[in-house]
Amino acid sequence: MQIANPIYDVVFKYLMQNNDIAILVLSTILEEDIISLDLLPQETAMALEKRTLTVYRLDFSARIKTETGEERHVVIEIQKAKFATDIMRFRRYLGEQYKKGFPVPGEKLPKATPIISIYFLGYRLDHIAVPVIKVLRRYYDAATGEEIPAREAFIESLTHDSFVIQIPQLGPARRTATERLLAIFDQHRKVEGDGHILDVDEKRYPEEYRKIVRWLNGAVCEPDIRRTMEVEDDI
Fold first, then answer.
1. Which helix (H) or strand (E) holds 185?
2. What does DSSP assign to residue 220?
3. Sign of torsion over alpha carbons 76, 82, 84, 86
4. With 50 as the cut, is the pLDDT of residue 50 above it?
5. Integer angstrom CA distances of residue 127 from 124, 130, 152, 166
6. Which element (helix H / strand E) includes 33?
7. Which of 42, 65, 124, 164 measures 20 to 30 Å from 75, CA to CA?
8. Burial of residue 210 (number of CB atoms within 10 Å: 0-12, 13-18, 19+)
9. pTM for the whole structure
């Protein structure tokens, strides 16, 4: 089956604007139970034909159900970049997110909300060759080294977990649920002579992920998506 290549921003946006699929993708990457997800307005959105930015950004407001049954509200910031030189834009966008607050019922002022960042990289890092990297925070007693299980809003609002996905490192080895889902980004599956299209075997994907493959298959015949991919080739 042929699918539109989600390494392209326009295809990635098409993928993540399907709320059910976005919940599936993000829940799998984060290994969390996302019970609601809302795509936030993109204040920095620009017409693709006029922009020279190589970083693409999506922000979501999410409610996550914890193992204890409690709910927590987080902002999931997704940044996707082609080049290693884009790191300063990553930092600037993250700083903008920290400046924002979200309204809370019964409160007069917006509240700082914990952030989880996910980076999709179109290039390889220098020293780490695995496709998916988790950067998770832990609290420790500085005197004893003992881990502290409690969480404080002050700390949660000023630090964050990150996930880094190296798209070029994705390949036939699919060791985890996350790697099996992210196989839709495997650039080794590009159709010869047309990098806009990946040729995948739907049967190799777990049943719960096949709706992603079918959704991307639908994008192949969208003329606007094909034209925008051609524009992206020139950026």
1. none
2. T
3. negative
4. no
5. 9, 10, 33, 12
6. strand 33-39
7. 124
8. middle
9. 0.86
